UniProtKB/TrEMBL annotation:
Pfam family, one: EF-hand_7
Gene3D superfamilies: EF-hand
Keyword Metal-binding in record: yes
Metal-binding is among the record's keywords: yes
Its biological purpose: In muscle, parvalbumin is thought to be involved in relaxation after contraction. It binds two calcium ions.
Source organism of the structure: Pagothenia borchgrevinki (Bald rockcod)
Residues engaged in binding Ca(2+): D51, D53, S55, F57, E62, D90, D92, D94, K96, E101
Keyword set, alphabetical order: Calcium, Metal-binding, Muscle protein, Repeat
Domain EF-hand residue range list: 38-73, 77-108
The family this protein is said to belong to: Belongs to the parvalbumin family.
Superkingdom of source: Eukaryota
GO molecular function terms listed in the Swiss-Prot or TrEMBL record: calcium ion binding
PROSITE patterns from the UniProt entry: EF_HAND_1, EF_HAND_2
Protein name (Swiss-Prot/TrEMBL): Parvalbumin
Amino acid sequence: MSMTDLLKAEEIKKALEAFAGETFDPKKFFELVGMKAMSAETVKKVFQVLDVDGSGFIEEEELKFVLKGFSSEGRDLTDSETSAFLKAADKDGDGKIGIDEFEVMVHE
């Protein structure tokens, strides 16, 4: 399954452009791509696309490249953006984002 099976390509493009030269804000990004309005089940499918190694978690290494999961044209997150994203989503402090933590962050 690819991201464009779940989200509209034009919304992905607009969201990526919004953060091309600006500090990445995951909550705002998820809203721009239309994820905030999605069901929890669909958000979890997006998570599975982003969970590149299939571990059931998005680890810090995967998080750095999260925008590339939405489009090959996405940029890499900076180290500080990656750390801020992880800190905002990792509610149990295990150093990675689980599927439920991801869904909560999208719908907050």
